Amino acid sequence: MIAQTIEKCNGSLHSITEKLDTGSAMGRFFYSLLASLAEMERGIIAERTAAALAHKREKGEVTGHAPFGWQLCADGVRLKRDGEEQETLRIIARLQGEGMSQRKIVDELNRHGRKTKEGRKWQRSNLRSVLDTLARRESSQ
Question: Global pTM?
Fold first, then answer.
């Protein structure tokens, strides 16, 4: 916290706009009060955001970008399968089932001209992200 760092150096915080001076007991109290209120506001915003996202997910609406294998429908709410990406997912699942390492799966996908959602060559980070998303989707169903 900035105020604690300033205090350790035997300094005090003076705010021109809030008429705040942490050099006095009253100033430190008001600074703590303002900090607590700001923390509470951040918490309330986080709770509301989490509730809104949960509500959207319960209704089957998308919360964020479309995962690999899917496209956002024109309504901006529902998902539809992307044929090419779904085929890539089947290839990934097959290669994984054969015990192939992530590095070799990436090499195979690139060798066969498969592209990421962004149209780029595959890297292990892309593959891990897709696998993590699939695992999360499976665990939530």
Answer: 0.57
